[in-house]
Amino acid sequence: MDEERKYALNIGEDNRILSATYEEYAVEGMPIVDALPGGETPEENDIGNYKYVDGEYVYDPLPQPEPEEPVDRLGQLEADVMYISMMTDVDIPTLEV
Amino acid sequence: MIEITNFDGTRIEKVLTEIDKGITIKKVWENASPGSAFAAQTIRCNTTDAIGFLIVHTYDAGRNDGHVDLVLKGFGSYLVNPQAYNQYRPASISGTGVVFLKGYIALTYGTVTSSNTRCTPTEIYKIQVMPE
């Protein structure tokens, strides 16, 4: 973060920080702050995990996305090969496993 | 000032006619936290005198691999970054600013998942017709 520049916050309806820009790009109504929130972990350094309430940062992390189901690698590879063969009009022989 | 009101095939001709008069490009926004996720939002700025905006964006939040896409006023558009997987984020111009929806990752065979770190805007430049 640039210590000499101030920041302007884009705040959502629930006071959650949506993004930050520099003061020179601020438009009317944007809070101007000296520093952005941060911490030690990637989650704590993501400004989207904070709300800006009464001039203070409140750490309120967004729920983490559900872990993805294990990928069927063979099925994925087969789909990719079929897609490429369709796009290139090349006949790919079917393999019996 | 350009005004695009008709929705037939002549729209792009009107834009190109305006561009032919000469344009200026001015930076109107910079992401001060490019490593953060970028939720759906409007970046507010004056759009009344704009033809469109150039959007610099990255494959994933915090990455330094800028791609540039043009979003013309009156046209729905996408930020796109095709790499190992295709990333995209719908974008358009409203009366109050540049509207970004959430980002997506699309696999080649059709699986799509949303991710607000994908196609993260880092800079926005406004394109205007040069004053006569």
Total of DSSP H or I helical runs spanning 4+ residues of chain B: 1
Given the helix and strand composition of chain A, which structural class is it? alpha+beta
End-to-end span of chain A in angstroms? 55 Å
Low confidence ranges of chain A: none
Question: Distance between termini of chain B?
Answer: 11 Å
Multimeric status of the protein:
heterodimer
How many distinct beta strands of chain A?
5
Low-confidence spans of chain B: none
Radius of gyration of chain A: 23 Å
Helix/strand/pairing category of chain B:
mainly beta
Order of helices and strands of chain B: HEEEEEEEEEE
Strand content of chain A: 15-25%
Description:
The complex is a heterodimer of chains A (97) and B (132). With 97 residues, chain A is α+β, with helices and mostly antiparallel strands. Chain A has one helix at residues 73-88; strands at residues 7-11, 17-22, 32-33, 50-53, 56-59. A three-stranded antiparallel beta sheet of chain A has the order 2-1-3, with no helix packed on it. In chain A, a hairpin with a 2-residue loop joins strand 4 and strand 5 (56-59). The radius of gyration of chain A is 23 Å and the shape is elongated. Chain A starts with 6 loop residues before the first strand and ends in a 9-residue tail after the last helix. Chain B is mainly β and 132 residues long. Helices cover 7% and strands 48% of the residues of chain B. Chain B has one helix and ten strands; from the N terminus they run H-E-E-E-E-E-E-E-E-E-E. In chain B, strands 2, 5, 6, 7, 8 and 9 form a six-stranded antiparallel beta sheet that branches. In chain B, strands 1-10-3-4 form a four-stranded antiparallel beta sheet. The longest helix of chain B is centred in the N-terminal third of the chain and has 9 residues, at 11-19. The radius of gyration of chain B is 15 Å and the shape is globular. The model of chain B has no long low-confidence stretch (mean pLDDT 87). At the A-B interface, strand 2 and helix 1 of A face strand 1 and strand 2 of B.
